[in-house]
Amino acid sequence: MTFEDSDPIGEFDVIRRFFSPSKGSPSQGHFSQNPVLLGIGDDCALMNSPPPGEVYAITSDMLVAGRHFFKDANPTLLGHKCLAVNLSDLAAMGAKPIAYNLSIALPDIDIAWLEQFSNGLHTIADVHDCTLIGGDTTAGPLTISITAIGTVHPQQALRRSGALVGDDIWLSNTVGDARLVLGFRRGEWNTPLPWQELAIRMDGPTPRIDLGLGLRGVASSAIDVSDGLLGDLGHILDASKVSAKIWIDDIPCSPPLREVSLELRRLCTLKGGDDYELCFTAPQKNRSLVQSLSEHLHLPLTRIGEVTKRIPEQPNMALLDKDNVPLPVDLAKQYMRSFDHFK
Amino acid sequence: MTFEDSDPIGEFDVIRRFFSPSKGSPSQGHFSQNPVLLGIGDDCALMNSPPPGEVYAITSDMLVAGRHFFKDANPTLLGHKCLAVNLSDLAAMGAKPIAYNLSIALPDIDIAWLEQFSNGLHTIADVHDCTLIGGDTTAGPLTISITAIGTVHPQQALRRSGALVGDDIWLSNTVGDARLVLGFRRGEWNTPLPWQELAIRMDGPTPRIDLGLGLRGVASSAIDVSDGLLGDLGHILDASKVSAKIWIDDIPCSPPLREVSLELRRLCTLKGGDDYELCFTAPQKNRSLVQSLSEHLHLPLTRIGEVTKRIPEQPNMALLDKDNVPLPVDLAKQYMRSFDHFK
Questions:
Q1: Strand, coil or helix: B36
Q2: A299 Cβ under 8 Å from any chain B Cβ
Q3: Any residues with CB less than 8 A from the CB of B59 and at least 6 apart, and which?
Q4: Do A256 and A119 share a domain, yes or no?
Q5: Which among A22, A77, B48, B172 counts the fewest CB atoms within 10 Å?
Q6: What is the distance between the alpha carbons of residues B58 and B55, in angstroms, rounded to a whole number?
Q7: C-alpha span between B30 and A225 (Å, rounded)
């Protein structure tokens, strides 16, 4: 409300210059018609029906400077990450990305920052054929809010509520690096590690879209690891009304994370967030299908546990160490707590 | 990232307690099946196809404390307004609201504030049968980002690009009160006026959903007045490649605004934002249809101008005073400038 008239470019110039769709006309993909009937520039975007038999999957994530990223974060990577975390939710549902809109509050108009940010954003959007269809640009503390839209067959959607007793629990790639990097940047630890190499795991997560698509009809449930592996797995267990045993020292992690103390490794792999890998359950009979998918995608998929019957008044997870001994309840509880912005 | 574990309630409690859908199961409305297949609580919401022949209309608006509203704004009205401004965009497209998601950054967890805010939000959502399907809750400077989804027949969508030379230009209700109140609150003017009565025009705007629906097949274009009447009308004129003449002193305004100086009245009615009335164009042959709609809705609809041919290098609006004399170009330009968050 207090801006002066002297700024060289304004809100509408920013939208025109940086937030026009990266492609002239989006690809039709598996749609019989272009999914986006009308994009940026009107009061609303218009989207055609999803392909016959499919439904739209819709998700939103908001990233706030100083909370989800450091204020001096690399703008290109930030542009990548703010869409990646939304695409990760589509992946966790088994949905194919179609479109997104972006609302952004900017403290000021910094052309160089906007160029890099929008480059990062448009690059990952193009990779996943995801069209920018609208949004809002305003002044305010740096905040990025995206709503992403994908398509999925409702019977194949990877809901959190589908895990059954006896199912395997799987994890893609490795977890814990993002938390390791965060702790280093915050000064929580200072171990000599290849930090520059590791940084990309926090700053440039890869949404596991192809994995999500491949798991349609194979997995019984899925979630993306954004707030910590055990906390997020807990959402599956609660929604499915089951429990789990987890072999916590078998959880796959990167070589640097294998070098640190057992305590730090467990903290990072079990409780660390921001990894955006998929944790999913699948019937044991689908093991070879999951393994084939892993080879096909060149993406490690590791069995980390098993779905068990829920017993009233009992913790919903048994955390087993490398000797198959359950962790003491108090310690286990600490690891099982999801990241909470207000706690 | 720096929150302590001592807060009494956390992120997930906030979602459960305040941002669960206000209704157990949303009404099917004109859908043959429930439009929302899966609501809050998974990685994505799932939405069925729009009814046959219709498409989804999607819009986003972000409201930032200290920019779009004062930090001490009444939380109930704020909850109302942040959805109302999104519904207003659906109205301007002629779309029927279906669902929305909400991403909110909160500086802290203030139970009383959240109760009032969510009451305001759910109340207007219920009025328009608009279901909360998801979102994100995080810590940060108070920022509210909503994406609203509606349905419309693509041929009847009120696009900005449909205005034709000779069309009438119409405005719903009155404009200018929101700007008048803003100026009073900012200390720009201090005229004795019924401020308490006027405040609701800034704090509790009414999205003109029924008007938008009634204008399907009647209006040739529409926009909602959020950034100033002339600036917003300018978007229609640009998209339609036409010009306009406007009888600026005939623009309907409230009795208090008729009492202030001509200069202040013009500033508020022509350039003031935040009114969320609809400005639309319609062929002259539809005058009686528009007037019937006005009576049916008990909502004044006033002709304020006419669409004219665009002449290269000429301003796209002629602003005529009560004596039909065009305003000097420099003065006219000032009124025609849209509100810009960065200018």
A1: strand
A2: no
A3: A43, A44, A45, A134, B86, B89, B90, B93, B147, B148
A4: no
A5: A22
A6: 10
A7: 38
Over the stretch A73-88, which tens digit does the pLDDT of each residue have?
999 999 999 999 999 9
Q: Is there a contact between A62 and B101 if contact means CB atoms under 8 Å apart?
A: no
Query: Final residue of a domain: which of A103, A133, A152?
Result: A152
Q: Are residues B219 and B303 in the same domain?
A: yes
Q: Which amino acid is at B121?
A: L
* pLDDT(B24) > 50: no
Q: Look up the CATH number of the domain holding residue B102.
A: 3.30.1330.10
**Assigned domain for A292 exists:** yes
Identify the CA nearest to A250 among candidates A302, A172, A307, A287.
A302
Number of domains forming the structure of chain A: 2
Q: Does A297 touch chain B (CB under 8 A)?
A: no
Residues A125 and A164 in one domain: no
**ipTM of the predicted structure?**
0.92
Tell me how many degrees the CA angle B308-B314-B320 measures, rounded to the nearest 5: 60
Question: A90–B64: do the CB atoms touch at under 8 Å?
Answer: no
Is A319 part of any domain?
Answer: yes
pLDDT of residue A10: 78
Q: Kindly state whether residues B126 and B29 are assigned to the same domain.
A: yes
Which CATH number fits the domain that encloses residue B220? Answer: 3.90.650.10
- Give the CB-side neighbour count of residue B285, counting CA atoms within 13 A: 3
* Same-domain check for residues A265 and A132: no
Tens of pLDDT, residue by residue over B98-123, are: 999 999 999 999 999 999 999 999 99
Q: What's the pTM value of the predicted model, to 2 decimals?
A: 0.93
- Pairwise CA distance, residues A134 & B93, whole Å: 14
**What pLDDT does A17 receive?**
86
Confidence band, pLDDT 50/70/90 cuts, at residue A2: very low
Distance (Å) of CA A47 to CA A39, A100, B190: 8, 11, 47
Q: Which among A7, A45, A145 has the least Cβ separation from residue B58?
A: A45
Q: What pLDDT shows up at residue A16?
A: 81
Average pLDDT over residues A310-339: 89
DSSP A46-104: EEPPPSTT-EEEEEEEEEEBTTTB-TT--HHHHHHHHHHHHHHHHHHHTPEEEEEEEEE
Q: Which residues of A fall within a CB distance of 8 Å from B147?
A: 58, 60, 101, 147
Whole domain around residue B80: which residue ranges? 11-152
Domain boundary among B103, B131, B152: B152
**A12 close to B (CB below 8 A):** yes
Which range (A230-234, B29-33, B47-51, B261-265) has the least confidence? B29-33
Query: What is the number of CB-based contacts under 8 A between chain A and chain B?
Result: 254
Report yes or no on A257 lying in a domain.
yes
Domain membership flag for residue B128: yes
Same domain (yes/no): A16, A122 = yes
Per DSSP, what are the bridge partners of residue A56? A151, B47
DSSP B273-312: -----EEEEE-GGGHHHHHHHHHHHT--EEEEEEEE---T
B313: number of Cβ within 10 Å = 4
Asked whether residue B216 falls in the same domain as residue B251, the answer is: yes
> Please, are residues B282 and B216 in contact by the beta-carbon 8 Å criterion?
no
Give the model confidence (pLDDT) of B158-194 as tens digits. 999 999 999 999 999 999 999 999 999 999 998 899 9
**Strand, helix or coil at B320?**
strand
Map residue A21 onto helix, strand or coil: coil
Residue B258 contacts A, CB cutoff 8 Å: no
pLDDT band of residue A12 (cuts 50, 70, 90) is: confident
Place of tokens 């989800």: A68
Residue B288 pLDDT greater than 70, yes or no: yes
Q: Note whether B291 contacts A: Cβ–Cβ < 8 A.
A: no
Is B289 found in the same domain as B214?
A: yes
